[in-house]
Amino acid sequence: MDRFEALTAFVTVAERRGFAAAARALDVSPPVVTRAVAALERHLGVTLFHRSTRAVSLTDEGAAFLDRARRILADLREAEQVVMGGRSAPRGQLYLTAPVMFGRMHVVPVVGALLAKHDGLSARMMLLDRNVRIIEEGIDVAVRIGALADSALRVVAIGSVQQTIVASPAYLADRGIPMSPGDLKVHSCIVGSGVRVGSTWPFGDRGGNSGGDRGETAVEVVPRLTVNTVDAAIEAAEGGLGLANVLSYQSAEAIAAGRLVRVLADHAPPPMPVNLLYDAGRAAMPSVRAFIDAMRERARQKAWS
């Protein structure tokens, strides 16, 4: 049994939630994946998956083993890139994570350009609007928006984004333009159960034209509509259903096209940083260096709009 191939099969089945899906991801036949996992189970003396005709799920032993298997594969990938790469061209697999919409708008184009340039490079992306455990998941580089918790991870700042309160021109013509955060209490608001903010919207209390920053405040809005994705919030705002609280890169296209209008810009809270996080052990990997350099260049060109 090739131990690393078996670990790869096990991790892929766990992540894809099925043997057939794992086989498609690995570009092998389902029996190859089944045999690899079965051989690993025999070697370990435990059952890693509950199998049924409808679903595959991890056993307690499988769940405990998953993080360790991911770390082993990540360490192997890192060692291979360091030995083969030095300061040479990126190769091997680059594993990334980013927020869904930011990843689609800004990370996918960067990765696409890197793949087109480097034949020996492949990439795997986990786009989620929540933070994942970078070390445990074997992530090479993570894109994070917002304040960071203290950690031993390396941080590369690549810019910032701002909160934007937006509504359609038709909604504002019908309901009026809010002039202060307190005016939101009489407006229809779109909030998210699975997006950045819920019903408590932060603001920088700049006091209108009086000058000077007098600190921050927050307004509890009453939701007229609750959604669980940013795309849905923006679409609802474009449809005239109310005001939505999203980030500048999320609303930039609709604002530029005139489908949305930004309000309360003078009361925006401080910008939120955009950072790249990675473990110090990944610093020597040519693929990591190439991705970081490419994201820095995109930040200079796009400013996350």
Which structural category do the helix and sheet elements fall into? alpha/beta
Radius of gyration: 23 Å
CATH architecture of the largest domain: 3-Layer(aba) Sandwich
State the end-to-end CA separation: 50 Å
Beta-strand fraction estimate:
15-25%
- Largest beta-sheet details: 5 strands, mixed
Shape: elongated
How would you state the average pLDDT, rounded? 88
CATH class of the largest domain: Alpha Beta
Q: Helix count? A: 10
Tally of domains: 3
Biggest β-sheet: strands ordered side by side in the sheet = 4-3-5-14-6
Oligomer: single chain
The beta-strand count equals 14
Low-confidence stretches: 207-214
Kindly identify the CATH topology of the largest domain.
Answer: D-Maltodextrin-Binding Protein, domain 2
The CATH superfamily title of the largest domain? Periplasmic binding protein-like II
- DSSP helix fraction: 40-55%
The ordered H/E elements are: HHHEEHEHEHEEEHEEEEHEHEEH
Characterise this structure.
The protein has 305 residues and is of the alpha/beta class. The chain folds into three domains: 1-88, Arc Repressor Mutant, subunit A; 90-161 and 272-305, 3-Layer(aba) Sandwich (D-Maltodextrin-Binding Protein, domain 2); 163-267, 3-Layer(aba) Sandwich (D-Maltodextrin-Binding Protein, domain 2). It contains ten helices and 14 strands. The strands form four sheets. It has a five-stranded mixed β-sheet. Strands 11-8-12-7-13 form a five-stranded mixed β-sheet. Helix 1 packs across helix 3 (30-44) and helix 1 packs across helix 4 (60-85). The radius of gyration is 23 Å and the shape is elongated. The relative contact order is 0.15. Residues 207-214 have low confidence and may be disordered.
